[in-house]
Amino acid sequence: MLPAKYSPKNVESEIFKFWEDNEIYRKVKERKGRKFYFVDGPPYTTGRIHLGTAWNKVLKDTILRYKRMSGFAPTDTPGWDMHGLPIEVKVEQELGFRTKRDIESFGIDKFIEKCMNYALANKDAMTEQFKNLAVWMDWDRPYMTIKAEYMNAAWFAIKRAYERGLLERKKMVVNWCYRCETALADAEVEYWDEEDPSIYVKFPVKGERDTYIVIWTTTPWTLPANMAVAVHPSLEYAKVRAVKNGKVEYLILAKELADSVLGKGDYDAWEVVETYLGEDLEGLEYEHPLAEEVPIQKNWKHQVFFADFVTAENTGCVHIAPGHGVEDYELGVEKGLEIFNPVDDRGVYTEKAGKYAGKHVREANDEIIDDLYRKDLLLAEEKIVHRYGHCWRCKTPIIYRATEQWFIKISELKDEMLREIDKVKWIPEWAGSARFKDWVSNAKDWCISRQRYWGIPIPVWICEKCGEMKVVGSIEEIDWENDLDLHRPKIDAVTFDCKCGGKMRRVPDVFDVWFDSGVASWGSIAYPLRKEKFEELWPADFITEGHDQTRGWFYSQLGTSVVCFDKAPYKAVLMHGFTLDEQGRKMSKSLGNVVEPEEVVSQIGVDGFRLYVLYSAPWEDLRFSWEEARNINRMLNVVWNAIRFAYTYMNLDDYKFGEKGELKMEDRWILSKLESFVKEANEAMEEYQVHRVVRAFFDFFVEEFSRWYIQIIRPRVWEERDSPSKIAAYYTMFRVIDRSLRVIAPFAPLISEWFYQHVVKRFRDGEESIFMESYPEPEEGMIDGKLEEAMDIAKDIVEAAANARNKAKRKLRWPLRELVVETSSEKVREAVEMLEEIILSQCNVKKIRVVDNFEKEIEIKPNYKYIGPLLKEKAGEFAKYVASLKEIPEKLVFEGEELDPKQALLIDYRLPDGYEYAEFPEGVVYIYKELDDELMREAYAREIVRRIQEMRKELDLDVEEFIQTMVEMDPELVKGWEEYIKSETRSEKLTFGKAEGYVKEWNVEGKKVRIGIVRKS
RNA sequence: GGGCCCGUGGCUCAGCCUGGUUAGAGCGCUCGCCUGAUAAGCGAGAGGUCCGGGGUUCGAACCCCCGCGGGCCCA
Q1: What is the DSSP code (8-state) at residue A887?
Q2: Which residue gives the smallest C-alpha to C1' distance to B3?
């Protein structure tokens, strides 16, 4: 016997042990197969996986298992993204560090060692978590971004970029984290709402008394670096005469914005005195508002320029600080302005900032506002809540700073990248054609340098003396001791001799970690250090990641790959969603709505978890719901019970698969459904539509197989040994179970393997593991569309009959004389003919009849509500006329007036006595609800049988055990059904008299009946 | 301001690409049933302006346009 209840824990522990003891994964992997190059998007080694990571790997595992069963030998190397700020930040926290200086004094070598140990430990912890989700990947041989052979792949890429003129060092305004003291890529900036000052500042126009240009900013701290003001050339500007406390000022700003801006200041009145276009303003000079506080500003000329990026918002005059804004910078370069940046790496003003030197920019805001106020240059001050960028790791608000950085010139590669996107198969299609293309179209040059420690060192050496630059494209060009020793600070000690006689030293930067993972498609197979695999496999056949990777891994990979090979590194991309909480919010620690994968697994098991996440469309976000998750488990339990049912009898009879017996209609039907299901699964998998397989599985196995097929064949399995009909049922059930399990095995590997070992291999020879079996392909010859359609109709009829019984209050246990199907459909007629036996037994009726028109009587009554107001006093006469009607007239003419019969008449159908009806899609079903004596006796017999069965159960008798039964009742009530009762209940003897043994008193339809049973030992 | 996705009973979602019976499922609810899969299982019923408005079409949840609401990303 199989366990009565599905216990995920027992199944899991047994199968995990079985796999391990027998090295099943290794054996499966050794099998030959067609190539399928899958590249694992490396999760960052944070130490714990979350729901989304778990979903991601389960999705990958399912596809890999499917591919293996389908004759492929997919690559399944897991990857780990191990460098970068997140780990540095963690280690810094552990050590209590606050700045880079803490690291330097601690020692970079020791710091790097800590980072490495931390990353390795996290990797191990996460590996265990993934293994516990039954993810089969090559865990003993992962690719790691910290390995020399991997770092080499990044060096190779940067050398290619250099050779193609796509590597550039330039001063550029970048996202800067002053806590981490490094540049950040756009992909590393997270946006959320932040409250900032919103100030309107008056810049005094040179040589014109009391005249000002009005600008607006949310970053007062950038004012010390102001170098210019920008206006839009074709926007209309105004000089406004404004009066405050009797004092007159002239303010220059966009005309259409004047009222709203002046309204914010304390002006008593204002009027436009002059207007001009933006282009007329060019060259207008002004004095820096903080020239006294920042004396260096006195050295430079400040004037108005025009620029197209200016919009009619705020004041229409934009404060330009080329050292602190991307557009500002570009304008600055164009106009030959000083790229003035008085802020250091830590976000602290340098000496150049005069009065503010030594202050942190975030703290300086208030002081600057005060100074402006004191100088009467502050027109208005407000607060604003707006989206502002933050460092993705330490959450510090970023600032923009002009610094020297290394860039990949994406701007020159964009067209090629966009072309490559079109060649990739995207699932869903819009992931590529819309979302990704949009990102790439707007991409700027990629800043790949970081002023940090824990990363792949940028392999650029520069001569101290002559500035000559050398880009190293292979680790073989330098000495390295072991594969983990290419990190800082060791690499910093490597120098080259320059032609000029000087020493070449490495630039101190490390790579953006997105560059690390960007080279995964060849780094993971150690190219170019080793060539064979690359030549055989590249590019990847398939990758899958979440939609956040649009600007992450999908992008970084495409960029590096186009640089190196002019080609996309992947052929197909499945973009999956995010896991959200039940309300559709992001899961986050601060909201306290985080659900851990382990928590889910402990409640519903690994297979339950996997099926749950694979149940909905992968590209949709997944709102996690406990209710839904448990629901999956209930369905799995039905699967369990269905297989257990089949097993019980097949096992009892020692069935061996092969014998087919005589297939009946229901057998042929479910076998047809099985092949339709297999077909659907294959088609869906080819499109990576995993959810369709899971849904089809539950539909088929729970709905069709368990709830319908097994229901129908139940009596057949307790026929005598060797009955051809019973053998046919066994054959059918086995085939269904065997093939269904193999279809669903990639999704629910543990329970499938368990059944394979305990059930499938009990009745036929098999492989050592279900994962050495092949994935079923549909045998289309067995699909019988007509039969499937007929069964749908039969189901509808049975359902309607149940409905009618409900109305007539006749339980299913009570047999009924007749079922009439009224229909005009030939298909229904054929279906009834074909499947009569099934309908009869499922409806528990003796006879079924199909008619075009059931002999019912109609009663026609006038609709007084309608005719009353129309016919007034003639209504009574009309009623008489209606009473004479025998059938519904097509035309209704009364007293020369034509009436619409549909409105004027109410039709009542009266069924002949004793009938009840219910509708079904193709007609109406009628049952005859009265029971004659003969039917009553059968009904009683069934009632008695049911109660004896329950008593057997209470005594915990074996299914096969015989008993003696005594019933205290009038034997006439079940006359003619004695043998039936005996055989159904395995009673050797049935007597009507004093009950002995285990005795119970029952109330059967109002009659007291005492039943006694004695077990036959 | 721009791009993308989503909006279907109380809840979670299929269906939409490829227009065509009376729009489905599960959960929940109400009422029943079954009892040799049984601390399970099954059925029926109630419950839907398929976000709104236009358009195309003989016909629109589905295709097109314009809105509204939510989410993500970008400015």
Answers
A1: S
A2: A438
Instruction: List the single range of A738-747, A798-807, A824-833 with lowest mean pLDDT.
Output: A798-807
ipTM for this model: 0.83
Distance of A620 CA from B16 C1′ (whole Å): 15
Order of all β-strands in the sheet with A572-576? A425-427, A572-576, A543-546
Q: Which residue is nearest to nucleotide B75 (CA to C1')?
A: A442
CB A921 under 7 Å to nucleic chain B? yes
DSSP letter at A704 equals I
pLDDT tens, A639-686? Answer: 998 899 899 889 888 899 988 889 999 999 999 989 988 988 898 888
Q: Is the CB of A187 under 7 A from strand B?
A: yes
Residue A102's SS3 state is helix
Q: How far is residue A245's CA from residue A257's CA, in Å, rounded to a whole number?
A: 23
Beta bridge partners of A1014: A964
* Euclidean distance between CA atoms A629 and A54, whole angstroms: 15
Which of A8, A42, A74, A528 is catalytic? The answer is A42
A451 touches strand B (CB under 7 A): no
Residue A629: closest CA among A55, A65, A10: A55
Q: Exactly one of A297, A549, A557, A842 is catalytic; which is it? A: A549
More confident of the two residues A493 and A4: A493
Active site residue A553: yes
Q: Which of residues 364-403 of A touch strand B (CB under 7 A)?
A: 387
What pLDDT, on a 0 to 100 scale, did the predictor assign at position A738?
Answer: 94
DSSP 8-state code for residue A226: -
List residues bridging with A243 in a β-sheet: A248, A269
Q: CA of A699 and C1' of B71: distance in angstroms?
A: 31
Alpha-carbon dihedral sign for residues A141, A143, A145, A151: positive
Quick count: other Cβ atoms within 10 Å of Cβ A575? 23
Phi-psi region for residue A808, left (φ > 0), alpha (ψ -120 to 50) or beta?
Answer: alpha
pLDDT in tens, A393-452: 778 888 888 888 899 998 899 989 999 988 898 888 888 877 888 888 888 888 899 888
Mean pLDDT of A906-924: 73
Task: Show which positions of strand B are touched by protein (CB under 7 A).
Answer: 2-6, 11-15, 21-22, 26-27, 32-45, 70-75
Is the CB atom of residue A683 positioned under 7 angstroms from any atom of strand B? no
pLDDT, position A898: 67
Closest to A966 (Cα-Cα) out of A998, A929, A925, A1008: A998
What are the angstrom distances between the C-alpha of A524 and each of A30, A36, A91, A151?
20, 15, 26, 10
DSSP per-residue string spanning A145-169? TTSHHHHHHHHHHHHHHHHTT-EEE
CA angle A38, A44, A50 (to 5 degrees): 95
When mean pLDDT is compared over A31-35, A575-579, A839-843, the highest value belongs to A31-35
Look at residue A822 in the predicted model and tell me its pLDDT.
85
How far apart (Å, rounded) are the C-alpha atoms in residues A519 and A860? 82
Distance from C-alpha of A603 to C-alpha of A851, rounded to nearest angstrom: 53
